Amino acid sequence: MWPTTIGRGLRWLPQQASTVAGQVDALFLFLVTVTVLFSGLIFVLVFFFALKYRRRAEDERPKAIHGSLFLELFWTIVPLGIVMVIFVWGAYLYFAMTQPPAAAMEIYVVGKQWMWKLQHPGGQREINELHIPVHRPVKLTMTSEDVIHSFFVPDFRVKRDVVPGKYTSVWFEATKTGEYYLFCSQYCGTSHAVMGGRIVVMEPTDYERWLTGSVAEESLPVAGEKLFARLGCSTCHRTDGSGRGPALAGRFGKSERLASGETILVDEGYVRESIVNPQAKLVVGYPPIMPTFKGLITEDGLLQIIAYIKSLKLADGTQAKP
Amino acid sequence: MSTAASDVRTNYLNADYSVRSWLFTTDHKRIAILYLVSITAFFAFGGVMAGLLRLSLLTPNGDLVQAETYNKLFTMHGITMIFFFLIPSIPAVLGNFLVPIMVGARDLAFPRINLLSWYVYVLGGTFTLVAAVTGGVDTGWTFYTPYSSTYANTNVILTALGVFITGFSSILTGLNFVVTIHKMRAPGLTWSRLPLFIWAHYATSLIMLLGTPVIAITILLVALERGLGIGIFDPNLGGDPILFQHLFWFYSHPAVYIMILPSMGVMSELVACFSRKRIFGYNFVAFSSVAIAVLGFLVWGHHMFVSSQSMYAGMIFSLLSFLVAIPSAIKVFNWTATMYKGSIALETPMLYAFGFIGLFTIGGLTGIFLATLAVDVHVHDTYFVVAHFHYIMVGGAIMGFLGGLHFWWPKITGKLYSEVWGRIAAVTLFLGFNLTFFPQFILGFLGMPRRYHVYPPEFQFLNVLSTAGATVLGLGYLLPILYLTWSLFFGKAAGSNPWGATGLEWQTSSPPPTFNFDKTPVVTEEAYAYDSQLEGHRA
Amino acid sequence: MPEHLPQVAHQFEDAAQQYETATLGMWAFLITEIMFFGGLFAGFFVYVLGHTQAFAEGSRHLDLALGTINTVVLLGSSLTMALAVRSAQQGHRNGQALFLALTIILGLVFLGIKGVEYAHKFEQHLVPGPQFQMEGSHAQSAQLFFSFYFAMTGVHALHMVVGVGLLSWLLINAWRGKYTQTYFTPVEVCGLYWHFVDVVWIFLFPTLYLVARHA
């Protein structure tokens, strides 16, 4: 059941196939060193003391040593210093791992029991596989149709839970062509262990060839536009703003003021929420009359509409920020 | 103080042999025995499941059991071991037996509540066993929503009720200990003269009291959601599945300190006795127990770094998680320093102490890996985590339990066990344990996720090593069951103080009389006064 | 073994130690109850921040009049309970019996009114589950509010039932003259429990019934 193209025989270390892998491994190696040194120290001391001070006579009575404030402070402050270094290093790297570069290629992922559905912006769909070009940052926007799953690519050192009812995202940049395991790493039921597949990293030209050779489907924004019309969204969300709902061009990525007074960023999560639970965060100045589309639209459909709305330009030709 | 050693006298064991006198006892020592029998039964049950899991993982294609069965096995292995073995283990057996005696009291503050706690434990355990044999449950011991609340089709509610009920056993035990330690110390026994075993149990009891109610309500909510369709964790109804994780881990992280603190208390007793020296840095060790209890409540989010929790929350939890490691490190250093210029004896309990110190150190340091944000992203939900917590729970907590059991066995039963077999078992367990769990660190770093009934073939070699180790480990656990039981019938009679240890429990006979002491002791010295003339003689 | 007065259990040195131990034990237990209810309150606060409008809507459907009456009833019962404890401390058998009986009656009144409220909710289709139905745009999230309403008041009511049971047991013993000036610990300890259950309601009432006033 595993993609037989990956099997590599006995391994002791995962591959380093992304820009962060080497950095994570360096930190890991530091932690291994600290562990070996500290445990080694304790093992040696315990062994040495057990030997040197072994009981030689039954009536031995060693002198009491109550303690040493100096030692207590020493072995509190030194470990504290070491772990603080580890904390800062780890937090710094983690921060970088959660900030996708601006020009990242967007892929949309829907996890469900028990498979991964992935969509490229041009409409190419994949099940349990993701083809990407090497040396290009890729950002996945993910959601689940049912329970919590988790998108894990060990050789990239990335992992992010995939949660129903919201979008989560992860990004990576592959540095080596090849195939790498994709695992679901949040227990999700019977076939959790086989809900995996592979990431196929290709040279850019091969990737382009793959894209054109893939089963031709509409691109996400085009599919989204069709859905937008079919579900009647265009009735109220007219492009000239004369409808009962706001015009949507150029709104994605901007802030909006809500009826409750707060301000919110129009991101994927907000658009999704506005479709399935419209009254939750209503934009100020509009009546609460939008019906809910919960149950009338799938997660895939929601992603298509989001892609469409993202693509809508303003009259002056500017596009909404991704 | 009297040191009468003969076991011909009336003691708590031979005072009354009737079944009724055991099932309706309010004697903390008998209740400890009742618990010992029940937790051993649950340990065997959980152990059999572990054996089946490891057997199944010998081959990458999961040929032994079906996926659903495997999922039920790991779920029930976790639930059994955590709620029905580890959490009660030391407190309900050694704590129940020793806390009153160590503080110089005739019994705990609330003896009938103590008995109630055992019956509640048995009731909860029965619910869970019924759930297990009528179809099992496959949510993982962590019960994450919305899988557990909406999608699973196994005995979730029944199991949840079993765990809910058993939680009260924990609460009642903790309550009894806290009140006893506060109000029933013998004259002269100030807080700074208490054995560190008592400090550890005090800290543990605080966690039991403050944490357990939260998991109770959380699990109740899951059962309500499942049974009545209310939607607190269901995103389709506006609920938040991540809220479950926060509520669950708010208890379940402190719970791991419930499982390890008592072991640390045992360690202090063992290292002091078998080095024949006061514990180095007594105040720091005592304070560390309380610090671990307090800090342990502030770190739960480190189980949720990749859950969609905010990055900033992640950083705060990561920082606090590093802080909570420091008191544990302080303890390990102090125990090691106690051995310096001591008089070290290598009897069985001390071998377990060595095992604990080594394995807990490794387990604790691998916790540092998990507290490190960037590294946790990679190893979260892999076998690295499984290895980490087994090093602490099995390499730490269970070694502590066995070490304590062997140390106080002569006191509890009035019999001596075979020292040769004791040492063989301790070494077997140490070796078997490392062979089982060390390969799992590597598997985790390679990326093998946990809770997988099948895996890529290149992981097989390490899995085979792990299963081989599990066989040795299983054998190692069988040994004490055999020779300890044997000692009950054929062991030599133990005197009141076979190890030459300090502490009030060694001042009374083995086994102790029903009311512990002939007359209320008066304490005039610090704990572990090995250097004074009167203590330290084996009797 | 030292001589013990009849009511001092064997593990205690004297009545004073027994009394202090019992009260500390009840306080420790009440702290666990704070954590138990605390989990529910924490969950509620997380959601009310995210769904303020919906929760306000839901809260408006609660019967404020009945809730207020219940608050007064429960506060009154705490007064009668305190008077019962005082009677016990003074050794007045009749006073104890009277005030315990009054407390029980007030507790039952509270539960009765709660039952009426629940029946109303059932008729109005506001019980969470497949039958839930509410007008307005916030129905989906308001169901969450009602989930919390029933969970929190339901758990509280269960505690009241236990309390009434405890007080009934106390009443029987008080009538038999078991509690005197030298031994009134059970009355005091149950009093602590009863006051606590009252205090939980003091937090529950504004949390659930007065949300709309904030929104």
Question: Could you explain the architecture of this structure?
Answer:
The complex is a heterotrimer of chains A (322), B (539) and C (215). Chain A is of the alpha+beta class and 322 residues long. Helix content of chain A is 34%, strand content 20%. A five-stranded mixed beta sheet of chain A has the order 3-2-1-5-8, covered by helices on one side. The model of chain A has no long low-confidence stretch (mean pLDDT 90). Helix content of chain B is 66%, strand content 0%. Chain B has helices at residues 19-23, 28-56, 67-86, 89-103, 111-133, 147-151, 156-183, 196-228, 241-275, 282-295, 311-339, 348-371, 373-379, 383-413, 419-446, 460-490. By secondary structure, chain C is mainly α. The radius of gyration of chain C is 21 Å and the shape is elongated. The model of chain C has no long low-confidence stretch (mean pLDDT 91). At the A-B interface, α1, α2, β7 and β9 of A face α3, α6, α9, α10 and α11 of B.
Question: What is the topology?
Answer:
The complex is a heterotrimer of chains A (322), B (539) and C (215).
Chain A: H1 21-52, H2 69-97, E1 105-112, E2 115-119, E3 125-127, E4 129-133, E5 137-144, E6 149-153, E7 158-162, E8 168-173, E9 178-184, E10 197-202, H3 204-213, H4 220-230, H5 233-236, E11 255-257, E12 263-265, H6 268-276, H7 299-311
Parallel strand pairs in A: 1-5, 4-10
Antiparallel strand pairs in A: 1-2, 2-3, 5-8, 6-7, 6-9, 9-10, 11-12
Chain B: H1 19-23, H2 28-56, H3 67-86, H4 89-103, H5 111-133, H6 147-151, H7 156-183, H8 196-228, H9 241-275, H10 282-295, H11 311-339, H12 348-371, H13 373-379, H14 383-413, H15 419-446, H16 460-490
Chain C: H1 15-50, H2 52-60, H3 64-90, H4 93-123, H5 139-175, H6 185-209, H7 211-214
Helix pairs in contact in C: 1-2, 1-5, 1-6, 2-5, 3-4, 3-6, 4-5, 5-6
Topology pattern of chain A, helix = H, strand = E: HHEEEEEEEEEEHHHEEHH
What is the end-to-end distance of chain A?
Answer: 37 Å
Structural class of chain A: alpha+beta
CATH level 1 class label of chain B: Mainly Alpha
Q: How would you describe the shape of chain B?
A: globular
N/C terminus separation of chain B = 13 Å
SSE class of chain B: mainly alpha
